[in-house]
## 1
Amino acid sequence: MIVGLGSDLIQIHRVEQTLAKYGDRFTNRCFTEIEQKKSDRRAQRAASYAKRFAAKEACSKALGTGISWGVYWRDMGVVNLPSGKPTMHLTNGAARALARLVPEGHEPHIHLTITDDAGFAQAFVIIEALPVK
C-alpha cells in the first residue's frame, strides 16, 4: 500500500548560484558525504546537486513532515541499489518519521525517480508499505 507521495521541481541555476555563494557550507549542511562525492565528480555538478536536493524535498513531502518536525537535510540521502536504481537512505528524524508511517507487520520500500532537463531538476518519491514475508 502507498503511504506517502511527494514531488519537487527546482531550477538548476538556483542551486548553481547557491553553490557559488555558499560552497561547502551549503553542501555540508544539505548533503551526505556519499552525495557530495558523487556530485563533485560529475561534469554537470549543479544539476547533480539539484536532483538530490529535489529528491530530499520530495521525500520530506512523502513523509508528511517537510523539512521540519525533526527531519533534516542530511537525514535523507540519495543512494543507488546494486542495480543502479536510485532510492533514499533515511537516518535519524527521517527514519523515525518513516517508521511512524508504516503499519505493523509491514516494511517500507522507497521508490525514487530523478531527472533533469531544460534547466530544471525533478524528483518523485513514493513510499510503499509491503507486508513482511
## 2
Amino acid sequence: MNKKTKKNLIEYGVTGTIILTLFLTGLHTEVFGFVQRGILKTGLMDPDVEVNATSTEQSKNPKADFNMSLINSKGERVEMEELRGKVIFFNIWATWCPPCVAEMPGINNMYNDMKGDDVAFIMLSVDNDFQKAIDFNKRKGYDFEVYKLAGGLPSMYASQAIPTTYIIDAQGNLALTHKGMGDYDSEEFKEFLTNLK
C-alpha cells in the first residue's frame, strides 16, 4: 500500500468515526442546526413578506382555522380560539429537525422583542415524546412556551415540511405561510408583524 492510499484511508476512517459518533450520540441535529444557522444569517432564507400590505390586501387571504386544542409545557389546555384578535406566530417544529433547531435562536430573540398582548406565539412540537421538546426548550434557555396538540391539527395547517410557520393577522386571516427554516429576527419581519395588528 502506497503512502497516499494509506493517508486517504486514515482520513476516511477519522471522518467516518466523527460522523458515526455524531449520530450515535444524537449530536448530529445540533451540529447540522449550527451549520444551518450560519446559512440563515446570509438572508437567503428570510420569509417573503410585504411590509406595506394594506388591510384590503390582507382581507383577500383565507380565514385561519382556530379550531385547535393545545397542551402547554405545564400540562394546561389552551384553545387557539382564545388567541383570536391577536397576531399569531404559529411554528410547527421538532427537536430532531436540524432546520427547526437552526431557526430557534432567532425566533426566541423575536419573541422577546415582540411578546405582549398583541402578538401570540404557538411553538407546536411534533415530537412523539413531548417531554423532549420541553427539555430542549429549558436546556437552550428559550423564553417562549412550547405546545403539543390535544386533538387534531386542522387541515389548513397540514404540511409535509417542518419547520412550517403560519402568520395569522389580528382579523383572523392567514397572512403568511413559510415552509422551511427562516430568519424571523429581522426588522423587516417584525415590522410585518406590527402591521398585522
## 3
Amino acid sequence: MFVKGVAKRASFLISVATIPFLLGYHAVSILMFSLIAFMMQFFRDPERNIPSEDNIIVAPADGRRLSGKIDRIKRVGSDYPLIDRIFPNGGEAILISTFMSPFDVHVNRAPVSGRVIYTEHTDGKFRVARSRVLTENERNLIVIETEHGNVGVVQIAGFIARRIVQYVNEGDYVERGSRIGMIRFGSRVDLILPENCEVLVKTGSRSVAGETVVARFVKPKSDRKN
C-alpha cells in the first residue's frame, strides 16, 4: 500500500520510462525505473496491526531501519518550546523522540484515541533534525485530548525532509493507530506524554508506527494538573 496518489503517478511514470527503452536508450530507461522504485520505497504506507489493550500508547513514527530509532527519552518542562500548547496549566511531561531515516515509512499515526483539540504549523529552516530543531526548523504540532490527559505529537522537518503534511483538523476524533500525517523523506517526531505514564521502551529501540507500545497510562487524569 502507498500514500494516496503515489500508485497512479508511478503507473504514469513507468509508462513514460518505457519510451526511451523502446527507442534504444536503455541506460536512460534504467535510471528512470530506478528513480521510480526509489520514490515508491519512500511513499509506501503499509497496514499495521494496532494493539487493542486499554491505556496503552503506541509509537507515532517508524524508526525501524538504518539509523532510525528512538533516540531520546527524558522529562521536560518549560525548557521544551511547545509544552504550554500541550499542557496550558504547566507541569512536567515525558518526551520520546524518534529519528526517522529516509528509508523508514514516513506516515505518522495517532499514539492514542481522542479528540484533536489543537494544531499549529510553524514555518522554519531545514537543518539536520538533531540540533535546535524545535526553535529553527519547520514543525507541526498536533494535540490530542484523552481521558488521561493531553498527548502531543510534534512532526519536525529536517535537512532532507522538506514538507510536513497533516491529515487531521481540530475537532476530529482519531483512533489509536490511525493516520494523522506524514513527513516526506523522514526526519524526527516528538511524542509528549503527561506525567501519569510509564515508559515501556528504551533509547535506541526500534519502533513501528501504530504497533509498538511505547508507554501506558498508570494514573487517572485527576492526579495531575492539565
## 4
Amino acid sequence: MSQGRIASYEPYARSLLRIVAGLAFAQHGAQKILGLLGGMGGKGAKAVAFSQMWFAGVVELVGGVLILLGLFTLPAAFIASGEMAVAYFQVHWPQNFWPIVNRGELAVVYCFLFLYFFTAGPGPWSLDQLIRKKPSS
C-alpha cells in the first residue's frame, strides 16, 4: 500500500482517534462528578461540588462528550488541553520531573492529543463537519 493511499485515510483515522479519546476523557469526568465507573479512587466517591476537582470533572465530562461528538471541537479541545496542562503542572510535576515517575503521562498525552485536535480539526465524522456542510436556505 502506497504512502499516498494510506494518507488518504488520515481524516477518518483522526475522527476515530477523536471519538475514542472523547469517550475515554468523558469517563474521567463521569467518575469525578457522578461517581460512576468506580468513582474517584475506585470507591464510588464524587468530587465535592464546586471544588477544583469538580470543575475538572465538568470539563472532562462535557468536553469529552463534545469531543466525542465532534461538536464545538476546537474550543472543547483547547479547554481540555489547557485543563490537562494545569493538571500536570499542579498535581504531577511537583512530585517528579519525569511523567512516568510522577504518574502524569496520561495528562501529558491528553494535553497534546487535544492540542492536535485543536489545530487539525475534528475530521469528517463529526457534527461540526455535518453542520458546516448544511445548505443555506
